Amino acid sequence: MKIFYQSSLPRSGSTLLQNIIGQNPDFYVSPTSGLLELIFAARGNYTNSPEFKAQDQEKMKNAYISFCREGMNGYYTSLAPEKLYAVDKSRGWGIHYEFLSSIFPNPKIICIVRDLRDIITSMEKKFRQNEHLHDPIVEHNSMRGTSTYKRTEAWLNSPPIGLALERLSEIIRRGIDKNICFIKFEDLCKNPDTEMKKIYSYLDVPYYQHDFNNIEQITVEDDSIYGIYGDHNIKKKLEIIHSKHREILGKDISDWIWNGQKWFFDYFGYSY
Question: What span, in angstroms and rounded, lies between the C-alpha atoms of 183 and 186?
Answer without folding.
Answer: 9
